[in-house]
Amino acid sequence: MNNQIKKTVKLKGHITSIALEKEFWNELNKIALKNSKSMDRLLEEIDSLERLGSLASAVRVFILKKLKSESI
């Protein structure tokens, strides 16, 4: 069973879609709220980071790193 949720976002003026599991959307929303940013703005920042692979993979890695850095 696939629990991914697909959302349409605007990145640098372009519409794109990204599919993430519900848990990742929840964490991404918490990070955005904590940093007083919109979801689109946070995704733009993640998209601008040097990355290999898809935006969805970059988002998952970003969230993992963020959670690990906060638990230290």
Notes on the structure:
Helix content is 54%, strand content 22%. A two-stranded antiparallel ribbon has the order 1-2. The protein has one domain (4-70). The chain is globular. A hairpin with a 2-residue loop joins strand 1 (4-11) and strand 2. The N and C termini lie far apart (34 Å). The chain has 3 helices and 2 strands. By secondary structure, the chain is α+β, with helices and mostly antiparallel strands. The chain has helices at residues 22-34, 39-48, 55-70, and strands at residues 4-11, 14-21.
Number of distinct beta strands: 2
General shape:
globular
Strand order of the largest sheet: 1-2
If you compute it from the alpha carbons, what radius of gyration comes out, rounded to the nearest whole angstrom? Answer: 12 Å
Q: Percentage of helical residues? A: 40-55%
Query: Into which percentage range does the β-strand content fall?
Result: 15-25%
- From the N-terminal CA to the C-terminal CA, the straight-line distance is 34 Å
Spell out the helices and strands N to C: EEHHH
Number of helices: 3
What are its keywords?
72 residues; alpha+beta; 54% helix
Task: Briefly summarize what is shown.
With 72 residues, the chain is α+β, with helices and mostly antiparallel strands.
Describe the SSE topology.
Elements: E1 4-11, E2 14-21, H1 22-34, H2 39-48, H3 55-70
Antiparallel strand pairs: 1-2
